[in-house]
Automatic annotation (TrEMBL):
Residues 329-450 form the Mur ligase C-terminal domain. This is UDP-N-acetylmuramoylalanine--D-glutamate ligase. It comes from Paenibacillus zeirhizosphaerae. Its EC number is 6.3.2.9. Residues 117-307 form the Mur ligase central domain. NCBIfam families: murD. Cell wall formation. Catalyzes the addition of glutamate to the nucleotide precursor UDP-N-acetylmuramoyl-L-alanine (UMA). Belongs to the MurCDEF family.
């Protein structure tokens, strides 16, 4: 453990008893901090409280006591999703108390070098892929963070011989101060989470914190095709290693810029790495990648660049790139029924993600979409809907907005599903309606373009219900 005495004797408040909150409370307690955990939910809704109390950690629930935050508190570790506007956070900031997420704690105790991966879309796929590439290279990766295992839990057990491969959200990064990854990657930027950040400026600034503390010996992997990513180059202190689908780079990882995913002959292109001396090293053909879609070529380029930055040899990259079959809820093939192929892309929680998934198919598509209303009008979907989507089945808070966008795209078959009191029943009805609208050779695609929280606990729950409904089709 890098700095085992960093938190010894400090009075720390952990705000939020979700998975990461429980783990960081346990880690801090083990490091000798005086920990108080707090959640606004009632005791019966906090089953994690018993585990913490058994360790001697004070747990307060049912609200935020007025004296929770006081001058004796030295650190507030908050759940990433808790807004900075809630009273305990506001009071801590007023008192000059450090407010961080568990990512900051994990950084201070982690022995292993850290690879941080963020972006609006593709984080989980890229992070998982990097883990497989480093594993094939014998570099002993530990995959953690927003992808599943809380970073503080993984960091406490990491050793110098490991590489910590971490998926990071803007919520997590906003609450960092000293965090410094050895390799940092920004995949892309799209308009999302504006209800939390209040605008794009804060969202981009939160993503950019990934690079804030890097030094000349660190590496920043950037999407050269994304203007926001490219615009951050003047602020980079580490070496920039770009990846691109549209340019022959002087140094970096790229695919032939004439690659067009809708033309079969043009996918016979190589992904290559051009090193600092100008030598071009072929890695594999785009056609050999294990998962479809132009955006997954982007993810593969990023994963290659990250793996090379971590020291993986070129010879180790080909097999895991071609054998990887993707991550659940990310353009996941579910089943083929009566000649119709069903795909689960529940993780598409913004319009850009849905655009990318729609562009992955040449076949006619019946699209299931809709969810939490965050104020978008979805008109950016109109061009990709035209000529590609034969019918839409819509549900959730945004169904009327998406119906309007579908009309502008000239789609004749627009079905709206009543959300009702049971979200599962509504989604099952959407699947059944889609099946009736699709014919042999068509695709039924769940790609909501919205978060799930208006109807479901998570995008995972939404995806699982979709898959169950598909498997029950008669």
């Amino acid at each position: 453990m890098k700095h085992p005495d960093t938190y010894k004797g400090l009075e720390v408040v952990v705000l939020g008893l979700a998975k990461s909150g429980v783990q960081v409370a346990k880690v801090l307690h083990r490091l000798g901090a005086v920990v108080t955990a707090n959640d606004q939910k009632e005791r019966e809704q906090c089953p994690e409280a018993s585990e913490l109390e058994a360790l001697g950690i004070s747990v307060l629930y049912g609200g935020h006591p007025d004296d929770l935050i006081h001058p004796g508190v030295k650190l507030l570790v908050k759940n990433p999703g808790i807004p900075y506007t809630v009273p305990p956070v506001q009071k801590a900031l007023e008192l000059g108390i450090r407010v961080v997420t568990e990512v900051e704690v994990a950084y201070h105790i982690c022995e292993a070098p850290i690879i941080g991966i963020t972006g609006s879309n593709g984080k989980t796929t890229t992070t998982t892929w990097v883990g497989k590439l480093l594993d094939a290279a014998g570099l002993k990766p530990i995959v953690a963070g927003n992808i599943g295992t809380p970073l503080s839990e993984a960091a406490a057990d990491a050793e110098k011989g490991n590489w910590m491969v971490v998926e990071l959200s803007s919520f997590q990064l906003k609450g960092t101060q000293d965090f410094r990854p050895t390799v940092a990657c920004l995949l892309n930027i799209a308009e999302t989470h504006l209800d939390y950040h209040g605008g794009m400026d804060d969202y981009i600034a939160s993503k950019a914190k990934l690079f804030e503390n890097q030094g000349p010996e660190d590496i920043a992997v950037l999407n050269w095709d994304d203007p926001v990513c490219r615009g951050l180059v003047p602020y980079m202190k580490g070496k920039v290693l770009p990846f691109s689908l549209t340019e022959h780079l002087q140094e970096g990882v790229y695919a032939d810029p004439s690659y067009v995913p809708d033309v079969e002959d043009d996918i016979r292109r190589d992904i290559v790495y051009r090193d600092g001396s100008g030598v071009i090293h072929p890695i594999l053909s785009v056609a050999e990648l294990g998962i479809p879609g132009r955006f997954n070529v982007d993810n593969a380029l990023a994963a290659c660049a990250i793996a090379l930055a971590a020291g993986a040899p070129l010879s180790a990259l080909g097999e895991p790139l071609s054998h990887f079959r993707g991550v659940e809820h990310r353009l996941e093939f579910v089943a083929k029924h009566d000649g119709v192929s069903y795909y689960n892309n529940s993780k598409a929680t913004n319009a850009k993600a849905t655009q990318m998934s729609l562009s992955s198919f040449k076949q006619p598509i019946v699209l299931i979409a809709g969810g939490l209303d965050r104020g978008a009008d979805y008109l950016e979907l109109v061009p990709v809907l035209q000529g590609r989507v034969k019918a839409v089945v819509l549900l959730g808070q945004t169904k009327e907005k998406l119906a309007e966008a579908s009309k502008k795209a000239g789609i004749e078959h627009i079905e709206l599903v009543d959300n009702g009191e049971d979200a599962a029943t509504a989604l099952i009805e959407a699947v059944n309606k889609s099946a009736s609208l699709a014919g042999p050779g068509d695709i039924v695609l769940l790609s909501p373009a919205c978060a799930s929280w208006d109807m479901f606990k998570s995008y995972e729950e939404r995806g699982r219900i979709f898959k169950e409904a598909v498997h029950k089709l008669k």
